[in-house]
Design goal:
Elements (H helix, E strand, L loop, with lengths): L21 H6 L4 H13 L7 H22 L5 H26 L9 H17 L13
């Protein structure tokens, strides 16, 4: 199995307990590229004056990008890892687009704006329980 020289990441992009350090493993689960794109588009497009269908289109297109980026570019094949990456995107995107969520879903209009922020924090803190840090190697004790 080929190993990337600088990060210890396998060429397949999978979480590899033997080669990846813990920070590398967690980074593979967070959709940074998609969130960066969504944040930039959120600053460019005035969703307030746009048709609400554009919010949905941007959300879905970037969501597809996040999935394809993980699947093709990073070579991730684990459905659990892909699922966590897409769910992380949905939570982060909801947090970023929350001011416009009431336009799409009227029942969310009166919901508290801190709800998606708290869910994003909890999800990010929950990931290490699903993908725990490997146990430190046992060093044999010489007597």
């Amino acid at each position: 199995m080929a190993i990337a020289a600088t990060t210890g990441q396998t060429m397949t992009g999978q979480i590899n307990n033997q080669q990846d350090n813990y920070a590398d493993r967690l980074v593979k689960l967070l959709p940074a590229e998609g969130i960066a794109a969504l944040t930039a588009i959120n600053g460019i497009i005035d969703f307030q004056s746009s048709n609400k269908i554009w919010i949905v289109i941007v959300f879905l297109v970037i969501g597809a990008f996040v999935f394809l980026w993980a699947k093709i570019i990073r070579g991730v094949t684990s459905w659990l890892q892909l699922g966590f990456t897409v769910l992380a995107y949905v939570l982060w995107a909801t947090n970023i687009l929350w001011p416009w969520a009431g336009m799409i879903f009227p029942q969310l209009h009166d919901a508290k704006p801190y709800i998606p922020a708290v869910l994003t924090i909890l999800f990010t803190l929950f990931i290490p329980f699903v993908f725990p840090a490997p146990a430190p190697p046992q060093v044999p004790v010489k007597s």
